[in-house]
Write a structure and sequence with these properties.
The chain has ten helices and nine strands. It has about 325 residues and is α/β, with parallel strands linked by helices. α4 packs antiparallel against α6 and α4 crosses α7. The longest helix is centred in the middle third of the chain and has 33 residues. It is globular and about 80 Å long. The two termini are about 45 Å apart.
């Protein structure tokens, strides 16, 4: 399913015009400073001849660190007004850069026209079906899982202290006075009776819920991505393979293919993962070549490195 058909980055000539305007503005103090060291994200893509991106059901942006693949995803998400959970590096001039970017959607989805309220005038808003998943989102999910586990362990220790106090014959957890009229100490008395009736382990389990095996970072990350893949629409994934084992990366590749084939999804990914790059039918933009071009995953330098590694290990 194609929702986003094309994204157009500014030409070198247009970038130069905008940068000249910025320079004049800095000289006149229009931006508040006489000098600013970075014009990010200007100056990245003309160098590699990256101008138009035509999207398929699955489109992959691949390149070394600093090649600009995450910048493109951030620009797409911002231009589409897609909501996202994590902040991203916008840079001082990102808004000016976005003004020079353009995109085309499928005819059933509205493009860049907005009404006076800031909403798209069309019936179908592509922002409403666009989902952004970044490595930062995945790390936050992992951290949230750790915090929950720490809270459970803390509560278990507190309950363990209570169980020990009651079963050892006293302590502050066993109420000395019970007033049914005022309700004083009633709940504590009921707790003490329940503790004496059950084993300590069973009491703690009933209070905390059934104990489950803790999940690894990779498993937590994969579950987070799986849960996000719930609705049809456009999904923008920025290096989702972080913290995923080879096995989970293979499962993620299978999940992506399933969502495209059976759930009307379009996927745009930036990745280094050989398992994602080898997805059959995926359209790969190689940002390491000059000019940037579409190629097969076998033609990527990074994949050739893997081949040489395996050959060297086999020879050894």
């Amino acid at each position: 399913m194609i929702y986003l058909k094309q994204f157009e980055l500014p030409s070198q000539e247009r970038e130069e015009e905008v940068l000249n305007t910025i320079t004049r503005g800095l000289q006149q103090g229009r931006y508040g400073e006489q000098y600013f060291e970075s014009y990010y994200p200007f100056g990245i893509f003309p160098i590699i001849g990256m101008r138009e991106i035509d999207f398929d059901d699955i489109t992959i942006l691949h390149g070394n660190n600093g090649s600009g693949k995450s910048t493109i995803l951030n620009a797409i998400a911002a231009k589409l007004h897609a909501s996202r959970n994590s902040v991203y590096n916008t840079g001082r001039y990102m808004d000016l850069f976005l003004q020079e970017c353009h995109y085309q959607t499928d005819m059933r989805w509205t493009g860049e026209e907005f009404d006076y309220t800031g909403k798209r005038a069309g019936r179908h808003d592509i922002a409403e079906i666009t989902h952004v998943i970044t490595s930062d989102d995945i790390f936050k999910a992992m951290l949230h899982g750790r915090i929950q586990n720490d809270q459970i362990r803390f509560k278990a220790e507190m309950l363990g202290d209570k169980v020990f106090a009651v079963k050892s014959g006293g302590g502050t957890f066993r109420p000395m006075h019970l007033n049914l009229g005022t309700g004083e100490n009633v709940s504590r008395f009921k707790d003490a009776v329940e503790i004496n009736r059950l084993s300590g382990t069973k009491y703690i389990r009933e209070k905390l819920g059934r104990e489950q095996r803790g999940f690894s970072n990779g498993e937590t990350g994969f579950m987070y991505i799986s849960e996000m893949f719930s609705d049809e629409g456009l999904y923008i994934l920025d290096e989702p393979e972080n913290s995923l084992s080879a096995d989970l990366q293979m499962k993620l590749a299978e999940l992506i293919q399933y969502m495209v084939r059976y759930n009307n999804c379009q996927i745009i990914i930036s990745t280094h993962s050989p398992f994602l790059l080898s997805i059959q039918g995926a359209k790969i933009y190689n940002l390491d070549s000059n000019p940037a071009c579409v190629c097969s995953f076998q033609e990527l330098d990074s994949m050739k490195h893997y081949v040489r590694l395996f050959q060297r290990c086999k020879m050894g």
